[in-house]
Amino acid sequence: MMTFRRKYEERFFRALSFLFTAIIVFVLVQIIWTVVKKGFPSLSWQMITQEPKGGFYFGKDGGILNAIAGSFYLAVCSTILAFVISLPVALFMNIYLIRYQRLLIGIRFFLDVLWGVPSIVYGAFGFTLLMYLGYKNSLGAGIITVAAMITPIMIRAMDEVLKTIPIGLQEASYALGSTKTETAYKVFFREALPGFATAILLAFGRGIGDAASVLFTAGYTDHIPHGFSEPTATLPLAIFFQLSSPIEEVQNRAYAAAVILTVIVLVLSVSARLIKMKK
Amino acid sequence: MSTQIETLLKSNLTTTVVHNNIPVVEIDKVNVYSKGHHILKNVSTIIPKNKITVLLGPSGCGKTTLLKCLNRLTDLYPDLKVSGSIRIDGDNIFDAHKDITAIRQKMGLLLQRPYPLPMSIYDNIAYGLKLKGIRNKKIISAKVEKHLKEVALWDEVKDRLKTSAQRLSIGQQQRLCLARGLAVEPEIILADEPSSALDPISSRVIEEEFIKLKSGYTIILVTHILRQAKRLADNVIFMYYGEIIESGPAQQVFENPQSEILKEYLRVGH
Ligand SMILES: Nc1ncnc2c1ncn2[C@@H]1O[C@H](COP(=O)(O)OP(=O)(O)OP(=O)(O)O)[C@@H](O)[C@H]1O
Ligand SMILES: [Mg+2]
C-alpha cells in the first residue's frame, strides 16, 4: 500500500532536487556569462599592461595593471605570511596535541568560527589597528589583514590533510627514534605536501578575491606600489570603484577586472581540485 | 612414574635455562586499559637476551599492544592507560625522566602493516642513520645496500633507489621496513607478523635472517603461523584475552602445553 505513496514521494523529491540544481547551474552560468560578455571585449593588451591614465575614476585611457599587480603582490605576500603561521600551528595540533582530543575539538571549532567571520570584520579590525598605530592605508596593512583572514582557512585546510595521515606512519617515525619535531617536519610535512598545495591555493583564491578586507586597509591608487608602506589597488576594488563611474570606458575596466579575477579564481579552484584528485 | 620424573626434570631444566639467560626486557605487572576495556591484564614476563621469543595468541588478544608498550607508542593514544613497569637493560621505560627517543632507538619495530616514510627507498633507510648522527655518505650508501640485501630486496630495487618507497608492493614495503629497522642497529627487534604479506620464498629468507640475527639481537616476534613459530622460537609466550596463559622455552610449550586453550590452539593451528 505504501508503495504508491513512496513512489510519489520519490518522484516529487527527485524533481525538486533536479529543479534546484538546474536553477543553481543556470544562475552560475548567467553570472559567468555576463562577466565574460561585458568584460571580454574590453580585454586588450593595453588593459593589462597599463596603469589608468588621468585617474582611475575619470580617465578614459589606460588599463588595470595597477590592480593586477597590486592584487598579485597582496595575495602572494599574505599567502606566504599565512603559510608561515599556519604550518607550525597545523603540525602542532596534529603532533603535539594528538593526546588532547577535547582541546583539539575546541581549537577546530574556534578556527571554523574565524573562517566564518565576514571579511569586513577583518577589514574593520585592520583599520582599527592602523588607526591605533598611526599608519595609513598601505600594501603592508592590506597584507596583514588578508593574512589574518586567510590564516584560519589555511590552518583548517592543512589540519584536514594532516588528520588523514594514518597513525601508523607516526608510530613508524617514532619507532625509528625521531623526536616530535622531526616527525612533524620530516615525515608529516612531506606526506602532506600535495594536500598542503590545495590548502595554499584555497587560501590564495580567497585572499585575491576579497574586497571588504582591503577596503579600509590597502587603499586604492593609480600606481603600482613600490613598497609596503604605499597604498595599492586591487582587482576586487577595481571592480567596485570603476563600476560606479558614469564613464563607459571606466566601467569597461571594471568588467575587464571582473573577467581576470573570475578566471584566476576558476583556475585556482580547478588546480586545487586536480591536485586533490591526483593524490 | 617415569613421565613424572621427566616433567620434573624438564621443569628443572627450564628454570636453569631461564636463569642462565640475561634478561634484557623485564615486564612487570603491565596493565593497559582503554575506556573500561582491559586490554592487557597484569602481564609479567621476561624476555631473554639473544633469543627469539615468539608471541602467540588469537587475534585481538593484545600482542600488538604489548609490543607497543615496549617502546611506549601507547603514548600516542589518549584512550590507553598504561601501568606497571617495563625494564630494558634495567631502566624502567615508564620513568618520566627517561629519554624516550633513545629507548626507541634501542628497538627496531616492524609494524603489522608496513608504513614507508614519504621519501625515496634510499632515504627510508638513510633516515634512521641520519638521526643517529651518521653523516658520511659512503657509510650511509654502504649500509643501505647491506641492509637491503639482508632482507632480499636489493635486486628488486637497486635501479630505483631514488623513487618513492610508497610505490613498492606491500610485501616489498614490509621488507623495506625491516631493513629500515635493522639499519639503526637496535638491540631488540620487535616484529609484528613480519611475513604476513610475503610469498613463501621471501618469507623463508626473512626467517633465515632472523635466525642469523639472533646472535646479536634479541628478537620478539608475533606470528600466526604455527609452523613458523616452531621453526624460529627459542622461547614462547602464549596470550589469550590480554593475559599470558603460558610461557617458557619453545620445546616445553609446544610439546607439553598445560592449559586447555593452548592445547586447542596448537591442535587447530596444526
Ligand atoms: N588504541 C586503542 N584504543 C582502544 N582499544 C585498542 C587500541 N589498540 C588496541 N585496542 C584493543 O585491544 C585489543 C588487543 O588489540 P591488539 O592489536 O593488541 O591485538 P593483537 O593480538 O595484535 O591482534 P591481531 O593478531 O589481530 O593483530 C583489541 O580488542 C583492540 O580492540
Ligand atoms: Mg596485532
From TrEMBL, chain A:
Keywords: Cell membrane, Membrane, Phosphate transport, Transmembrane, Transmembrane helix, Transport
Transmembrane segments: 12-36, 72-97, 109-133, 139-158, 196-220, 254-275
One Gene Ontology term, aspect cellular component: plasma membrane
Localization of this protein: Cell membrane
InterPro entries hit by this protein: MetI-like (IPR000515), MetI-like_sf (IPR035906), Phosphate_PstA (IPR005672), Phosphate_transprt_permease (IPR051408)
GO biological process assignments: phosphate ion transmembrane transport
Chief localisation class: membrane
Pfam families referenced in this protein's UniProt entry, alphabetically: BPD_transp_1 (PF00528)
All residue ranges annotated as the ABC transmembrane type-1 domain in the record: 68-272
Topology within the bilayer: Multi-pass membrane protein
Signal sequence bounds: none
UniProt-recorded Gene Ontology molecular function terms: phosphate transmembrane transporter activity
UniProt-listed PANTHER family: PHOSPHATE TRANSPORT SYSTEM PERMEASE PROTEIN PSTA (PTHR42922)
Entry similarity comment: Belongs to the binding-protein-dependent transport system permease family. CysTW subfamily.
Protein name, as recorded: Phosphate transport system permease protein PstA
Source organism (scientific name): Parafilimonas terrae
UniProtKB/TrEMBL annotation, chain B:
Pfam families assigned to the protein according to its UniProt record, in alphabetical order: ABC_tran
Keyword Nucleotide-binding (UniProt): yes
Keywords assigned by UniProt, alphabetized: ATP-binding, Nucleotide-binding, Phosphate transport, Transport
Domain ABC transporter, residue spans: 25-266
Listed GO MF terms: ATP binding; ATP hydrolysis activity; phosphate transmembrane transporter activity
InterPro entries reported for this sequence: AAA+_ATPase, ABC_transporter-like_ATP-bd, P-loop_NTPase, PstB-like
UniProt KW Nucleotide-binding keyword: yes
SUPFAM superfamilies, A to Z: P-loop containing nucleoside triphosphate hydrolases
Biological process terms in GO annotation: phosphate ion transmembrane transport
Lineage top rank: taxon: Bacteria
Coiled coil: none
GO cellular component, one term: membrane
SMART domains linked: AAA
Name the record gives this protein: Phosphate transport system ATP-binding protein
Native species: Parafilimonas terrae
